[in-house]
């Protein structure tokens, strides 16, 4: 026989549901975002709204478990020092393009990544940032290596 009263069971159920919702919103919630201007050598700049992944936990979570990502949005991965960066698509359901970016904001290279692919995609040299966007977005808005992200005020924690 269960000794818990009905009010105790209701409170317990409420706690379990609340804890689950709180964990899910933290784990899959959106990060702080910023509008970032991308200068395109003689063409009008492009603005992207990018979530800012600054901490180890935010960078490890990245865009995992997301089902969609609108054009003109993405995630900027911010690191405290230049290094060769490697990314994979574990638990990432959206096809992505990734730009590897130097400390001065210059795009060094752009690569494509496929959903759920466990192979790493790495920068060819040390960089400070990476920007993930929906696959093909860079091409659709004519962003290429050599273009520059204006990152004034955007730094790691």
Kindly report the average pLDDT value: 86
Major sheet size, sense and barrel closure: 7 strands, mixed
Strand order of the largest sheet: 6-5-8-3-2-1-9
* Helicity, as a percent range: 10-25%
Morphology call: globular
What fold name goes in the CATH topology slot of the largest domain? Jelly Rolls
- Order of secondary-structure elements: HEEHEEEEEEHE
Our estimate of the beta-strand percent is 35-45%
How many helices?
Answer: 3
**Which structural category do the helix and sheet elements fall into?**
alpha+beta
- Compute the gyration radius: what is it? 19 Å
CATH class of the largest domain, anyone?
Answer: Mainly Beta
Secondary structure elements and their pairing?
Layout: H1 6-28, E1 33-40, E2 43-53, H2 56-61, E3 73-83, E4 86-87, E5 96-101, E6 107-113, E7 121-122, E8 127-134, H3 137-140, E9 148-150
Parallel strand pairs: 2-3
Antiparallel strand pairs: 1-2, 1-9, 3-8, 4-7, 5-6, 5-8
Offer a concise description of the structure.
21% of the residues lie in helices and 37% in strands. Strands 6-5-8-3-2-1-9 form a seven-stranded mixed beta sheet. It has a two-stranded antiparallel sheet with strand order 4-7. About 13% of the residues have low confidence.
Could you explain how this protein is built, in words?
By secondary structure, this protein is α+β, with helices and mostly antiparallel strands. The protein has two domains: 30 residues; 120 residues, Protein of unknown function DUF192 (Jelly Rolls, Sandwich), CATH 2.60.120. 21% of the residues lie in helices and 37% in strands. It has a seven-stranded mixed sheet. The chain has a two-stranded antiparallel sheet with strand order 4-7. The radius of gyration is 19 Å and the shape is globular. The termini are far apart.
